[in-house]
Specification:
mainly alpha; three-stranded antiparallel beta sheet; 3 strands; globular
Length: 145
Amino acid sequence: MNNAKPEGMRRFNHLLGELDATYHDIALKFGLSDSAMYILYTLCDEGADCPLSEICRRCGLSKQTVNSAIRKLETEGILYLQKAGSRGKIVCMTEAGRELAARTAMRLLNAENAILASWPPQDVKKYLDLTERFLNDIRERATCL
């Protein structure tokens, strides 16, 4: 087995790990679990209530992890679920949830937006285009693994 990685992949993996660790530290600073932070973040990013299936998709977490975090947030009076159709559910924030989100996830979103706003538009476009390209390529290759 050849364990050698091209330097670009080594750096990429290091940066992803550091980015994940930084977001984890931010969640801890706010007194939230990573999964609770992802859920509040997604709701803030959506700007309103959000289908449960969309939260699972956008968070990249398992359905079980999202459901466990939502149950905990429900017991804390932060979120509630509303039926949508015969099988769907919508995740909604309570007033306490909106206040918590404003103090946590919304601050993170604002910081991220400020960072991207400080970059030249062509750098933002290039960064997003290359990230999307890598995502699409790895998805395609994953089918052959």
